[in-house]
Write a structure and sequence with these properties.
The complex is a heterodimer of chains A (116) and B (112). Chain A has 116 residues and is mostly beta strands. Chain A is built from no helices and 10 strands. In chain A, strands 2, 4, 5, 8, 9 and 10 form a 6-stranded mixed sheet that branches. Classes of the chains: A mainly beta (116), B mainly beta (112).
């Protein structure tokens, strides 16, 4: 079946521009996560959505980062006034149940963001 | 949070079993052990998870010691396509969090 889909797969933009990254989770998955991975580093948690609950934004690095999930499905991660340190691979994951259900997270292949 | 310790790298001959160890000595009673792998330029791929019983699926087997302080991921017949970084993760289970905390993992190189 279809996995987690992210777009674009690559994005190059100039410093100071805004970018929007999209994630289509697996159909029926109620939980959605955003992570980022810098070159040679581990995954850094950004934000978590579960159903209609308020999202867990504890991992967002600054107020330039925001995310929304409309209709409980597709999510967009927006970075305003991008800076060079925002360059990374942004990964989206979804899981079948709430965080406490221990259902595994399934990842997309990410968006590789490069800030010039 | 429970932490995990894995060897930084391992080699395995193609067709042989790959046994990847993980130590998680501070694991809590209700925390699961998850294994993921990441092949270059791809997102992490879920492999298997377990609580205390051994688990097997079409990809691998997971052996968890009785005291739950360590586990081993077994790829029964490694192929070249299994070359990847393998991550052993203990799920954060506090409050509303559930994000996975990836360490440095084990880089498995399957050689012909």
């Amino acid at each position: 079946g279809a996995g987690v889909s992210q777009s674009p797969s690559n994005k190059v933009t100039e410093k100071g521009k805004d970018v929007e990254l999209r994630c289509d989770p697996i159909s029926g998955h109620t939980a959605l996560y955003w992570y980022r991975q810098s070159l040679g580093q581990g995954l850094e948690f950004l934000i978590y959505f579960q159903g209609n609950s308020a999202p867990d934004k504890s991992g967002l690095p600054s107020d330039r980062f925001s995310a929304e999930r409309t209709g409980g499905s597709v999510s967009t991660l927006t970075i305003q006034r991008t800076q060079q340190e925002d360059s990374a691979v942004y990964l989206c994951a979804s899981s079948l149940g709430a965080v406490y259900s221990n259902q595994p997270q399934h990842f997309g292949d990410g968006t590789r963001l490069s800030i010039l | 949070d429970a932490k995990t310790t894995q060897p930084p790298s391992m080699d395995c001959a193609e067709g042989r079993a790959a046994n990847l160890p993980c130590n998680h000595s501070t694991i809590s009673g209700n925390e699961y052990v998850y294994w993921y792998r990441q092949i270059h330029s791809q997102g992490p791929q879920y492999i298997i998870h377990g609580l205390k019983n051994n688990e097997t699926n079409e990809m691998a087997s997971l052996i968890i010691t009785e005291d739950r302080k360590s586990s081993t991921l077994i790829l029964p017949h490694a192929t070249l396509r299994d070359t990847a970084v393998y991550y052993c993760i203990v799920r954060v289970a506090s409050g509303s969090q559930g994000n996975l905390i990836f360490g440095k993992g084990t880089k498995l190189s399957v050689k012909p």
